[in-house]
Amino acid sequence: MQLRIWSAIAVAALAWGTNGVATRAALNDGVPPIAMAAIRAVIAAAVLYVLLRLRGRGVPRGKPTWRIGLVQGLFQLTIPFILFTLAYDNASAGFVGLLVALMPLGTAIGAHFLLPDEPLYAAKVVGLVVAFSGVAFLLLSGDSGLEVGGKPLLAAVLSLGAVAAISFAGVHARGRADMFDPMELAFMQFVVGIALIGLTMLIWEGMPLSL
């Protein structure tokens, strides 16, 4: 079990680490920001659907689980995908990537106030302070890629909005963990995200005919 947990953490870390660089590269090649978020959601939903079918599962059913999926699709996927992609369009991948590292801090603070069984105890606070200090040090040291220009202040506001949304989504799902299967919930949130991001794309950017 420990191997599976650490393997999942390693894969997630690799994905998060390469996400910003890949997104920034695609934006530099002219892919519209919201269209980029929509494409990512479609690919993820397709992969998750295949994985569900391999497990002998189908499309999740039931209003309670889909209500959770709607909340997660909005706060875990739609808002962060759009805000982070816009942030990458206005600052370096390194700068935005450092702000992404604040998600555990936001989640821990949210859990402290919203989940009775996850208070902030001394060791957790120390760990979070150390992590935040590391992010702050890298930002102040000039090693975050700020020198490439852009609009770092706007990117910071967008990124922190995404961090707040993801933190809320994590706490919301944690408080209802007995009501859903994690993979089914992931599929639901991407389906919801496709609809919401696609609608935003059509309103904001129109149909990306060049893709």
Oligomer, anyone?
single chain
Q: Which word captures the global form?
A: globular
Number of helices: 8
Radius of gyration: 18 Å
Mean pLDDT: 80
Q: What is the string of SSEs from the N terminus onward? A: HHHHHHHH
Helix content: over 70%
Strand runs, count: 0
Cα distance, first to last residue?
42 Å
State which percent range the strand residues make up.
under 5%
Outline the biggest β-sheet.
Answer: none
Q: Could you say which structural class the secondary elements and strand pairing correspond to? A: mainly alpha
Q: Uncertain segments of ≥5 residues (pLDDT<50)?
A: none
Write the layout of secondary structure elements.
Elements: H1 2-28, H2 33-54, H3 63-88, H4 93-100, H5 103-114, H6 122-141, H7 152-174, H8 182-204
Helix pairs in contact: 1-4, 2-3, 2-8, 3-7, 3-8, 4-7, 5-7
Task: Outline the structure in words.
This protein has 8 helices and no strands. With 211 residues, it is an all-alpha fold. Helix 3 crosses helix 8.
Write a brief structural summary.
This protein has 211 residues and is mostly helical. Helices cover 76% and strands 0% of the residues.
